Amino acid sequence: DSEFSTPNSTFLFLQVTYLTHACMELQLGGKKMIFDPWLTGPAFARGWWLLHEPPADSMERLCMADLIYISHMHSDHLSYPTLKSLSATRPDVPIYVGDTSRPVFWMLEKSQVQLTNINVVPFGIWQNIDEHLRFMILKDEVHPEMDTCIIVEYKESWKADFIKNERKKLMNYKAQLVKSLQPKIYCPFAGYFVEAHPSDRYIKETNTKNKAEELNALIKKSAPGITTWTPKPGAVLDLALALMSPSRKAITDPPSGTNIYKDSWDFDLYVDELNRAITAEIFKHKSWIQFYYNWAGFKNYDLVVRVIETDEDFIPIDNGYNYLVDFMDLSFPTQRPTREHPYEEIKNRIGVMRHVVKNGLLWDDLYIGFQNRLSREPDVYHHRFWNHFQTELPVAGPDWDLFLQQVPSYQRSAEPQGIQTKSGSACTLS
Predict the structure, then answer these.
(1) Are 123 and 163 in the same domain?
(2) Structural domain range at position 201
(3) In this structure, are 77 and 36 located in the same domain?
(4) Per the UniProt entry, what is one GO biological process (predicted)?
(5) 163, exposed or middle or buried, with CB in 10 Å at 0-12, 13-18, 19+?
(6) Model confidence over 7-60: pLDDT tens digits?
(7) pLDDT digits 0-9 by tens, 228-271
(8) Any residues with CB less than 8 A from the CB of 225 and at least 6 apart, and which?
């Protein structure tokens, strides 16, 4: 393109710097955008921790950004510990999110993070930053209720049908992939393949993102003309240089001796915060179960679930809660119904489960955070159930103050019976 032909042109400053996880800094001329900043703390209720050590100046970069884009509400993209640090220095930094059916920042008030410039923008509408830079947020087609992607345009007009053509290519690619993996069936809701004859084998065969090296090799084999980049923290991709002269080295790795992988985390700070939920007053009264699931509002679905509280090793805890929920009529039987029914057993680590219940959080913290163990009869994925608890729980959390007002006073005065956790705390069951 002629716009990139002059070496001294200001069009040339197009750099992508990898920070950590999904967090990157995009510098376009004099503007800096940062995507999905997770720089500190855990994700998914301490189920995930950062693998790579962010560059030492990452938080400073975040505070100096002209704008921040957050793709969706999962805590490895929307990190409240990170945003808490950001808000202490620059609460008015412009943050942009898509207008998803469940608001990205639905937990902002409860988080007590003070951010004053959050912009929820409609899908498919250009957002102009200046005369040279604009971006558009688009809805993700696999998880349209929550996920998004972004297109950034800098000093050049996109062809009018760019989005339509690129999305068509993507759909054609998925169709070919599905055909090549028969008899596996692609599940657009779950986002993965399910075999006609259930087996765990499909995970290793189709989940190529487990290892970047394998994915790079697959791309190189299928499309030799495409260059792949598996960046290290602080690595820079100079897009302008790549556009002007593809033969020149456009990638700069971090200096020798840079700490690539994290070797320290504030485990105790976050784990102790989660475990405080174990001794919450509400869990002294068994009626919390009915109150909570009535609040959740999922019913009229033929599924019986047993939930079991466990220790860190998924061993059931003495005197821990072990209960059934029949979602056909939202009842809580003491035994499985006599009718034929699908059944799921869920073992949850007690600290995380109670943290999720107490705060009305989505079950992604359990499911994606590896905080539970599941067994199913038959081995069928219940999309309606998991989609509800992972994306459709009420935005306003359970009213536990109201619940405690409804509990008889003699129950509230019960003494702890001593469920022991590894930190030595105890809770009471009624």
Answers:
(1) no
(2) 159-252
(3) yes
(4) CMP-N-acetylneuraminate metabolic process
(5) middle
(6) 344 445 789 999 999 999 999 988 999 999 999 999 999 999 999 999 999 999
(7) 888 899 999 998 887 777 666 888 999 998 999 999 999 999 99
(8) none
Assess whether 248 and 286 both reside in one domain.
no
Residues 166 and 214 in one domain: yes
The answer for residues whose C-beta is within 8 angstroms of residue 99's C-beta and 6 or more apart is 120, 121, 122, 123
Helix pair 350-359, 267-275: axis angle to 10 deg: 70
Residue type, 235: A
- Contacts with 267 (C-beta within 8 Å, 6 or more apart), sequence order: 46
CATH number of the structural domain spanning residue 286:
3.30.1050
Neighbours of 188 (CB within 10 A): 10
* Same-domain check for residues 114 and 44: yes
CA separation, residue 115 to residues 45, 169, 224 (Å)? 22, 38, 45
57 CB neighbour count, 10 Å cutoff:
12
- Domain's final residue, options 154, 171, 187: 154
Q: Which two tokens stand for residue 377?
A: 């009869």
| Among the listed residues 419, 203, 173, 213, the one whose alpha carbon sits nearest the alpha carbon of residue 317 | 419
User: In whole angstroms, what is the distance from residue 73 CA to residue 105 CA?
Assistant: 7
**Contact predicate 11/2, CB 8 Å:** no
For the entire predicted model, the pTM comes to 0.80
What pLDDT does 411 receive?
55
Give the C-alpha separation, 112 to 386, whole Å.
Answer: 28
Q: How many domains does the chain have?
A: 3
